[in-house]
Write a structure and sequence with these properties.
Layout (H helix, E strand, L loop, with lengths): L1 H9 L3 E6 L5 E6 L1 H4 L2 H13 L1 H15 L12 H11 L3 H5 L3
Antiparallel strand pairs: 1-2
């Protein structure tokens, strides 16, 4: 998750704020460039929710073909976004495999 957030930060989507407490905490907030992406992400989220069973079935078939039982790309693209949606539903491939 940290690597994914850092990649997003590098692309100017969220801003990272270190909170000087012990232990150190970090907070992220969406900046203007990131807010500009909310409409397409909302559309993507709605489409995924409308087709959640089909998305999960496709992911399962892919994972079986890959032989690993989980998606290969966890660091970029839409895979982490899909994982967030699936985790909210409780059907993420991460939950099924016990992977972090």
């Amino acid at each position: 998750m940290r690597q994914y957030l850092r990649r997003l930060e590098r692309n100017g989507l969220p801003a990272r704020h270190v909170i000087a407490i012990f232990p150190v905490a970090v907070a992220y907030g969406i900046i203007a460039l990131g807010r500009a992406l909310l409409p397409p992400f909302k559309t993507f989220h709605a489409r995924t929710m409308q087709n959640l069973d089909a998305v999960e079935a496709t992911r399962t078939r892919f994972d079986k073909r890959a032989g690993s039982g989980r998606l290969l790309d966890r660091t970029g693209g839409v895979a982490p976004f899909l994982d967030m949606i699936m985790e909210r539903r409780g059907t993420s491939s991460r939950n099924k495999t016990g992977a972090p």
